[in-house]
Each structure stands twice: as C-alpha cells, then as structure tokens.
Known about the structure:
With 478 residues, this protein is an alpha+beta fold. The chain is 37% helix and 27% strand. Helix 3 (45-64) crosses helix 7.
Amino acid sequence: MAKEKKLVESITSMEEDFAQWYTDVVKKAELIDYSSVKGCMIIKPAGYAIWENIQHELDRRFKESGVQNVYLPMFIPESLLNKEKDHVEGFAPEVAWVTHGGQNELQERLCVRPTSETLFCDFYKNDIHSYRDLPKIYNQWCSVVRWEKETRPFLRSREFLWQEGHTAHATAEEAVERTELILNIYADFCEEVLAMPVIRGQKTEKEKFAGAKATYAIEAMMHDGKALQAGTSHNFGDGFAKAFEIQYTDKNNQLQYVHQTSWGVSTRLIGGLIMVHGDDSGLVLPPAIAPVQVMIVPIQQQKEQVMNQAVQLLDTLKDTFRVRLDDSDKSPGWKFAEQEMRGIPVRIELGPKDIEKGQCVLVRRDTREKIQVSLDEVSAKLAQLLDTIQKEMFERAKAHRDAHISDAHNYEEFKQALEQKPGFIRGMWCGDRACEEKIKEETTATSRCMPFEQEQISGVCVCCGKPARKLVFWGKAY
C-alpha cells in the first residue's frame, strides 16, 4: 500500500506549485523525458500517441477542406531568409545556424527552419505561372527549431513538432476566407476533441506574426488562469509575394501577385490538454483524444475464470473502443493509481464477485464515479459513458474559464483584477501601441486577442481613458 500511495504523493499539488505540478505530471505519466540536448525533449510513447491522435484528426479535417500534404527541406539559405525584412527580424533572435558541412565551412550559412514561409515562397515562385495553377493549399507535418532561452516540456522547447500550412490564392478574398476557415477548424478541433474551450479573435499589430497582414488566434485558459495561444492563422496578403516575385498570369493575360496564408498548431496542444484537465492524481484525458480509452483491470487475476472473462471482454470491446487489458503482476491498487496517472478515461474492474453477478464496474477517471453494468450491456453503456465524459469535461472547462473572466473599465480595475482573480480580463483599448506596452511593462499581462464577437463594455481605453476602438482579452500567458 505504501508504494501505491507514493505514486500519487510524488506529484506536487497544483494549488501548492502549479509549475512543479505540471513538470511532475509530464514526467510521472511518462509523456516526456529530458534529452542531453538542453531545451529539447524526448517524447515517449504515451506522449507521442496523443500527438498521433492530434495529427490524425486534424489531418482528416484539413483534407476535407482541400489541403494536400507536402514536405520541404529543413534548411534555409541565409540569403533566402533575408528576402522578407519584417519576417527575418521577427525570428532572428531564435534562429539556429549551420555553418559547416563535415570539416568544410559552408559558403553560405543555412538556417534550421524556425518556420517555412521563405521556403514555400521560393517553391511557389517556380511552381505558379497561371491562374490555372491556383490555389495551392499545402501543409507539412514536421519539426522546427527556435533557440528559446526559457523552455518547458511541450509548451516551449528548442525543437518541437507541428504542422504548418502555406497557401497561395488568386485573390485577397480567397486568402481571407482560408485564414478564417483554418482558424475555425482549429477552434472546433480544440472544443470537440480536446474538450478545451477557446476564444477566437485577431491579434493586435504588436502581437501579430512577423510579416503578416493579419493574425487570427485561438486563446485557451489553463487551470491556473494563464492563457495559452493554442493555434494561429495568418493572412499575408501579397507582401511575401512581392518580396519573392510570386506572380501569375490572370484570365486577362495580366501579371498579378498571389495572396498567401500560413497557419499552424504544435505539440504545445498537449501541454494545454494537461493544464486544462489534469488534477493532483495526474492526467485526465478526454475520450476523443485518449490513446487508451478503456483499461480492463482484473481483480484476483490468478483465478482462471477472472482472466478468461477479462480476455473475453477485451475481445468484445476492441473493435469499438481503444481498450487494453492490464494483466501485469502489479497489485490492483497500483494499477488503479497508474491508470489515473495516465488519464485513461474509464477503468473496468472485474473480479470473482462481479462475474458471479454477471456484471463489471465502470470507473470514470474524471469524477471517479463507479457504475455497475451488466456484462451483456457493457459495450452500449461504455459508448454512452465516454460520450458523457467528453461533453462534461468540456462543460467543466468552459465553466472554469467563464468564472475567471473579469471586466475592467479603467486601469485601477484592470490591475485589481490581475491581483485578485487570475484569468482573462476584458477591457476596451484605444488602439495605441503605447498602451499595450505600458500594460505589459507594468503588469506583465499582454493582449491575447480582439474577439470576433465585439462588445462595447465601456467607451474608453482601459489604460489611458481615451476613446476606445476595440474590446480586447488581456491576460498573463505561457
């Protein structure tokens, strides 16, 4: 019993130290391990399985919208990176450079991709000639490198996995439409699959992507009230096209510049998943994304009838659910604690007494509720239960987020809300960058987004008191 207790006690309480709780969970649930390369992580099978499910579901949604997958090199010549001034300035502090090939110094430095806009532009310049070649709606699944000073598993590492979409269109309207479409795909995925509520909106000029005309984002709130930028979609207009001379001949035989977009989400979604749903016993995974939805735990498995029934139950469920049988020689109590640590949505307990009654016990990970179910009805009841868990996890996360949103009508209210109630603050903004910078410098809060659904909660800027232009969600962020 001491060992079983120790598994959970090794996790720091989230109320005591949220940052340490997070680190404990990603380690104890065996999602990651630290590598010998500082700032880079090893994603272990349990963590990578979550990423595979994210990939699978997002890839399906992308392809339904006309996306095709490609792969471009990971190296970018310095001269190519320098073609778009704002873009290179935005990424310069984080770029990793290759200077030698073997023993020989390279004639030109190669950047290890922090993102691939310049590579796609160079590719499109030679691949697009006529309006008949458009649109190009491409995406690649890959890793990128950004030499971050402060790193944290999944949330910010020097190399991370992501997808990056890069599209080219004949008109500005088509580019805007694609930018918005992808943002909504991201938002729907987060809410329907990750059970993570998000706010959809546009970034300010200060916070938009380097080189973009406009950046749209989805912002999620973590359990500690901090924001996480969960996904972004950028409208480039024709800025990159002019820098790289990407032109096409239109139907009137006139040369035109293409209009481009770029969009991406990364393994930081796994970090968000942990921080939105986890508890002091470890992970709590929504059924839609959980690599293992159901774990069968036999009680007194040394008894032949118990294991026979457990195997039979596994055969019954395996074609419908992601289910496993824990037939290890660990004690049931240890298995229960381990299943909770890994966030498996439902545990099925099956012992001699249950078999005598022709039943088993379903245990919810999220609420720990125990439900006795006839063995003949397990499959149907399990489907209903997983659906219920998915919906209720989203509703709880949404209720938590909504309870941690404050309205501020002036700067005093803004600072008071930050001190007393972690979360998002809704405040009007005059549009002046100086106010944004003042808020960040004095409070460390940043503008998260200007929500698409605008309201006029007051007529003046929350910082300077001048006439307001936009409602903004503000908050401290990861």
